[in-house]
Amino acid sequence: MLLDLIPHLINGLALGLLFALLALGFMLIIGVMEVINLAHGSLFAIGAYVALAVMAPDGGLPYAFMEPYYALPAVARYLIALAVGPLVAGVVGMGLELCLRRTYGADPLYGLLLTFGAALVLEEAIRLVWGSSEYYLPIPSGISGGFIAGDLIYSTYRIYAAVFAAGMIGVLWLFLNKTPYGAVIKAGAHDSEMVRALGYNLTRLRLLVFGFGAALAGVAGIIMAPIWGIRPVVGVDAVIPAFVIIVLGGVGSFWGAVSAGIMVGLVVALTAAFLTDWSLLSMYLLLLAVVTFRARGLAGKSSVLEA
Amino acid sequence: MHDGPANDTAAPMPAEGEDAMSRISNISRRSFLQTSLLAGSAGGAALFGPWKHNRVYAAASDKPIRIGLTHDASGQFANSGQAERRGSEMAVAEFNEAGCVLGRKIETVWMDTETNPQTGTRVAERMITREDVHFLVGAVQSGTANAISQVAQKYGCIYFNTNSSSPTESGKNCHRVKFVWDGNGENFSKAAARNAIQSFGKNWFLIYNDYVWGQNTNAATKMVATNYGANVMEEVAIPVGTRDWSSVLLRIQQAKPDVVAAAVGGDDFKVMRQQVSDMKLDRKPAWINNQQDWPDIYGLGVDAAFGVFGTTWYHYLDLPGVADFVKRYQERYPTTRIDVPGNVTYNGYVATRELLRVVGEVGSTDNMKVIKALEGRVMKAEDRMQNHDAVIDADSHQIQQTIYLAQGNPKPRDESDYFEILSASDPESIRSEAGKECKLEAYADTPNYDQG
Predict the structure, then answer these.
(1) Where are the beta strands (DSSP E) in B278-320?
(2) CA A125 to CA A119: how far, in whole Å?
(3) Residue B19 within a domain
(4) Which of A16, A294, B19, B112 is 20 to 30 A from B440 in CA distance terms?
(5) What is the least distance, in Å, from the CA of B247 to any CA of chain A?
């Protein structure tokens, strides 16, 4: 019985790393800007759709014009997608931050409403460009298919995605903790007025952080697309777990978000295997259980983005 | 969304040289009161009398016949909803081009039912009470179809459930006004089960979407499979909206079944299939997918057609009329992403076509006349582009029809040729027993309904 559990624990860990990746951009924006970005899921979707356009000949770009480009190997197009998807999501995110500026210092509800409205607009824009059909992001053959371990077949892509997510988490941690830019972002999250007093351009800092968080959402969209598929409402599939993970981990806590993501992944994977009809509900029950006994979340005490 | 104008009744014009004000002034107070009283009494009798008619009395016989299309454009079955809408509208357009029905133009009014029973209820109410439709057509999700049909029955408005295939639709949720045009889950299970047990083995693992269609189709599959000697190892209910199937797929591998029988639909099915194919789990164990709707697979390539599955129609059936139907569809919808029609469009088309034919035959849109003409109606195989004649069960209103068993095509003739048809089951051999649970309302308990 215990041996039967091991594949599900591995699967849950992989899923958890993906959930953590999903929540990183959300965490960054809420930590520095104190804005609950409900358009996070739409930025996630933009990353996925842009990657689709870059990867697939019928993904939205004019084929006749782009034909020589689609002759490139799939690996090359995938690497381009990994660069262009987050870039576009980041630019859209920066545009959203420009709209948000009038809400700074006002009731947080305004920011919430604005990002909610932006999510609706972006979803409809996606529907206009790509329609309401479901798509799948083609991936290079090297990371697709399955592999046998023991007497079970695992998805190669899932393992790749989990390793990628772990790598992104590590890189982001290094960026925030070992570079001067990260130090400024962390300081901005602690005390933005002090950062301004020290001569840093707070307006630009917020713009860049929002763009960076949006780009992270775009990366997550590209990584999750081959698993979840791509459809206009995929943003809703993304933003809800991201929100749950942030609250569960403690708002603004880097490792809180990561550990909450892994915890949600494990709980979802185990319930999906053994109590399948509870699988969608399980993350909310986990949130309820944790928040009941620890209202600030798992690591809510430590301040924003601290290691 | 309106596709045509609402019924405008022309007001009588004043005689030449007489303006409207002068006519009004010529009416005496007494005659006005008498006329009003009479009109009020007649109206009151009609509305509150024992006849329970829902009738628009200002109707003119030359006004258009209005069909309310209740096809999804959003939610889990958005793609299929729009596919069946194309079929319904194609049938309407062909009738209009051929000279209309009873000399009357046919109009459609479409509203998005959002794959949502609450929206289905609201749309049906609005269609009947405010849009004055004569008939309702369309549904993919059984919960939505059931909701629409409850409203339709309340008013007596005939409703064609075109593509939702829960056995309950013509079983315990049947109604006098509702006709179910798709094969149901039990039909498909019967077509597949015996073959699968003989070919693949007796150990079955059942998975199903946890809502009315999935639950009832799974129950039918379980009953049929165990009747043929299958051993059901496990049954797993999958919540609607599941995007990650990895845990379930691991559990299936650990159980080592011979056959996985899946009653999973819409977007959930698409994502499940993607993950199954990606892991190369589509060959062993054998997969029986209760029904494969064309919009759920089109565009994904032949590799996406995994396992064995049922369908009511395929565009490469070697039967009279099929190629012509495909050609007409392509001429009518040259830019649609699904450029060959599939089972969902087909069901929408033949259902709407049959409705308009019957209206023409009975010479009326009166619901009782149309219902009685539909009950027990036999439809010729060559006319329906299927292998066997189909019949509308008088006791359940289920269309008993040919069910095709298919699998992915190893030798496709072109990029749209996804299916290899394995068999064409005679309707009698796969007849659904769900109708035994059907208790149609008596004619007298069904309101008369005719929008004129």
Answers:
(1) 286-291, 308-311
(2) 10
(3) no
(4) B112
(5) 5
For residue A276, give the nearest of B238, B275, B278 by CB distance.
B238
- Tell me whether residues A227 and B243 touch, CB distance under 8 A: yes
Q: What is the pLDDT of residues B120-133, one digit of tens each?
A: 999 999 999 999 99
Contacts of B92 (CB under 8 A, 6+ apart): B67, B106, B108, B352, B356
What does the alpha-carbon distance between residue A292 and residue A303 come to, in Å, rounded to a whole number? 21
- Rounded CA separation B292/B266 (Å): 9
Print the domain residue range for B274.
186-318+403-430
Does B299 reach chain A within 8 Å, measured CB to CB? yes
Predicted confidence (pLDDT) per residue in A128-171, tens digit: 898 877 888 999 989 988 888 888 888 899 999 999 999 999 99
How do beta strands A152-155 and A146-149 pair?
A: antiparallel
Nearest-angstrom CA–CA distance, B383 and B391: 12
- Going from the C-alpha of B103 to that of each of A20, B4, B360, B362, the distances in angstroms are 64, 17, 9, 13
**Residue B281 and residue B414 in one domain:** yes
Number of residues that this document lists for chain B: 452
Q: Dig out the tokens for B160 from the structure.
A: 């064609």
The answer as to whether B361 is a domain residue is: yes
In chain A, which residue's Cα lies nearest the Cα of B77?
A133
- A136 vs B contacts (CB less than 8 Å): 274, 300
A197: its two tokens: 């007093």
Q: A145 and B251: CB-CB below 8 Å?
A: no
Q: Is the pLDDT of residue B381 over 60?
A: yes
pLDDT at B6 over 70: no
A2-293: CATH topology = ABC transporter involved in vitamin B12 uptake, BtuC (1.10.3470)
Q: Is B253 on the interface with A (CB under 8 A)?
A: yes
Q: Do B105 and B234 reside in the same domain of the chain?
A: no
By C-alpha distance, the chain A residue nearest B236 is: A276
Q: Is B166 helix (H, G, I), strand (E, B) or coil?
A: coil
Task: For A165-203, write each residue's pLDDT tens digit.
Answer: 999 999 999 998 999 888 888 887 777 788 888 888 888
Full-model pTM = 0.72
Question: Nearest CB to B271: which of A228, A273, A276?
Answer: A228
Render pLDDT for B157-193 as a digit per residue (tens, 0 to 9): 999 999 998 889 999 999 999 999 999 888 888 888 8
H-only helix segments in B315-434? 322-332, 343-362, 367-374, 381-384
> Domain holding B107: CATH number?
3.40.50.2300
What is the residue type of B136? L
Which residues of A fall within a CB distance of 8 Å from B236? Answer: 276
Q: How confident is the model at residue A48 (pLDDT cuts 50, 70, 90)?
A: very high
Distance CA B282, CA B280 (A): 5
Split into its structural domains, chain B has a count of 2
Chain A contacts of B80, Cβ < 8 Å?
Answer: none
Neighbours of B423 (CB within 10 A): 15
Residues of B within 8 A of A8 (CB-CB) are: 247, 250-251
* Integer Cα distance of A32 and A171 in angstroms: 18
B364 vs A: CB within 8 A: no
Do both B285 and B333 map to the same domain? no
Q: Does the distance separating the beta carbons of A269 and B279 come in below 8 Å?
A: no
Q: Could you tell me the two tokens for B161?
A: 């459930």
